[in-house]
Amino acid sequence: MPTSTELSNARHHHSDASDRASHNPPNALARNAEPGACPDESGIPDEDDSAGTAAVTRPSARTAVDPAPTVRRPTIADGAHMWRIASDSGELDVNTAYAYALLARDFRDTCRVAMVADQTVGFVTGYRRPDAPTTLFVWQIAVDPAFRGRHIGGLLLDALVRDLVDVVAVETTVTQTNDSSRRLFGKFADRHDARICESPLFAAADFPDAHEAEPLLTISGLAR
């Protein structure tokens, strides 16, 4: 995974977020939060190998007739949408738009986007641990505020892990105060009949800015 400080993490791990756009870069290796009415979500993989560029477009407000969310690998065109969703989350440490484009190109196998019709409404980014390639580190999860309450965060996690058939463990870091992310990963562990344990990883002193400690959550024994 790139180590540039441009590749920061989420201010609250995974997010479904409010309106408070945050453009403050770098922090710990991950933050994926999905605060809101329902912090976990779901859908069906929809492969799309096309690539390209696209302007950022904002999804319209959800309606009663919105189709079910689907999940697929990102393309370069999704990088701009991922950046916009992270910025709108109000919860994540927002990476540069360039970083999301790189993630969508070079790490697309371990990242996913959620779609409602032709709108990108959520994403998860992650990577295989270089020294433990069967462990997936989940970096950020975010869902557009207009599409909260549809279990899209949980859907993204489930679809990504289902596709990575050799992955035996999932790691992420979540601050002690980030209840929504803890619920999201706790429910994920329950759905997969897996064990979840917490251990120290990044202390507050490891960060150059005002930042909470980031303990490590490890989810192992995933049921397939």
UniProtKB/TrEMBL annotation:
Pathway: Amine and polyamine biosynthesis; ectoine biosynthesis; L-ectoine from L-aspartate 4-semialdehyde: step 2/3. PROSITE patterns: GNAT (PS51186). Its EC number is 2.3.1.178. It is an enzyme of class 2 (transferase). Keywords: Acyltransferase, Transferase. InterPro entries: Acyl_CoA_acyltransferase, Ectoine_EctA, GNAT_dom. The keyword Electron transport does not apply. Residues 1-73 are annotated as: Disordered. The keyword Ligase does not apply. Residues 69-214 form the N-acetyltransferase domain. Pfam families: Acetyltransf_1. SUPFAM superfamilies: Acyl-CoA N-acyltransferases (Nat). GO terms for biological process: ectoine biosynthetic process. One of its GO terms (molecular function) is diaminobutyrate acetyltransferase activity. It comes from the Bacteria. Belongs to the acetyltransferase family. EctA subfamily. NCBIfam families: ectoine_EctA. This is L-2,4-diaminobutyric acid acetyltransferase. It comes from Occultella aeris. The gene is ectA.
